[in-house]
Amino acid sequence: MLPDWSHADIAALTGIDRDEDYVDAEREEPGCLMVVGRSSLVVGRERLLTAVRAGGWTGKASQLSEDHVQWTFIDEIARATEDAGRRPLVTNGPAGGDGPQGVPWDRALLLQRRSAVALDGRSSIDAGRFFEILSRAMPAAGPPWDALWWDARIHLALFVHRVDGVEPGLYMLIRNARAADALKEAMTRDFLWTRAADSLPLFLLVRGDCRRVAERLSCDQEIAADGFFSLGMIAEFDASLDEFGSAFYRHLFWESGVVGQVLYLAAEAAGARGTGIGCFYDDPVHDVLGLAGHTFQSLYHFTIGIHLEDLRLTTEPGYPWG
């Protein structure tokens, strides 16, 4: 990721700053610029921008629909979180932490990765594979974590349902040791905070069957209760925005996305399948964890288990060039 590129520069580079070509059409929003390569690559920003601005664009944006609802608060958030560019904290360094790397994922596993539509609600996973999945989610010096310029800000609240050798209950995986004390202080509930793994900063908070709680918190979706476990991604919110500014709001979601993609691949490697859960109730999640205010904020949910095939869908080989 190249954090020194501002949103205005990214918009210019990609041509989405052309007001005249977006008349009556939905505007695109710049995100981030990334370089994909085997080693560090310095991109001449001004040279690229000069070349693009001297060129000519063709085509106009198409209107998605004649019936358009203008959600003004989304535009307000976009403007409030525009990034003017910044110096990175680290250069090609770890995203914070020294989690185990494990065996690199092969090409076949990357190409087979899918999202589960439904889980069977009865299968379990052994503790070894469970801990391996979680270890993959810990930041380390290798990819994909070294693409991020900040240290880890996302922690995982886990609802463990069916893991052989691990008690059902509510757990917390602390992905950056720096945040341990702040998390314990912010969670006002009388939690156990019992260490649950020798090799991971995983802590048992509450023992017991939490399937119905997990389902309820994820907008009453059964998939949150039917897997081996589900989780909520909890972000260090206020402190991160105080340190890096309002634009870092987007970065917290990007880190959640990286964590989610790693969980997808870790699930496939374990012979299971995962899926992100975009609908959940923020405030009830905070109530369960005993969180108040926005010191920590629930950003996204995820679940892993044995998937049920959707027989309405036809699966064809993908990526024929592979």
SS-based structural class?
alpha+beta
**CATH superfamily heading of the largest domain:** NADH Oxidase
The overall average pLDDT, rounded, is 90
Across the major sheet, the strand order is 5-6-4-2-7-9-8
The gyration radius over C-alpha positions equals 21 Å
Instruction: Give the SSE string.
Output: HHHHEHEEEHEEHEHHEHE
Instruction: Quickly count the helices.
Output: 10
Unreliable spans are 91-98
Shape: globular
Tell me, what is the CATH class of the largest domain?
Alpha Beta
How many domains comprise the coordinates? 2
Report the portion of residues in β strands. 5-15%
Q: State the oligomer.
A: single chain
How are the SSEs ordered, and which strands pair?
Blueprint: H1 7-14, H2 45-54, H3 72-80, H4 107-112, E1 125-126, H5 127-136, E2 154-160, E3 163-164, E4 169-173, H6 180-186, E5 194-195, E6 202-207, H7 211-217, E7 229-236, H8 238-244, H9 248-269, E8 273-277, H10 282-289, E9 296-305
Parallel strand pairs: 1-3
Antiparallel strand pairs: 2-4, 2-7, 4-6, 5-6, 7-9, 8-9
Helix pairs in contact: 5-9
Describe this structure in words.
With 322 residues, this protein is α+β, with helices and mostly antiparallel strands. The protein folds into 2 domains: 7-80, no CATH class; 107-305, NADH Oxidase, CATH 3.40.109.10. The protein has helices at 7-14, 45-54, 72-80, 107-112, 127-136, 180-186, 211-217, 238-244, 248-269, 282-289, and strands at 125-126, 154-160, 163-164, 169-173, 194-195, 202-207, 229-236, 273-277, 296-305. Strand 5 (194-195) and strand 6 (202-207) form a beta hairpin. The longest helix is centred in the C-terminal third of the chain and has 22 residues, at 248-269. It is globular. The relative contact order is 0.15.
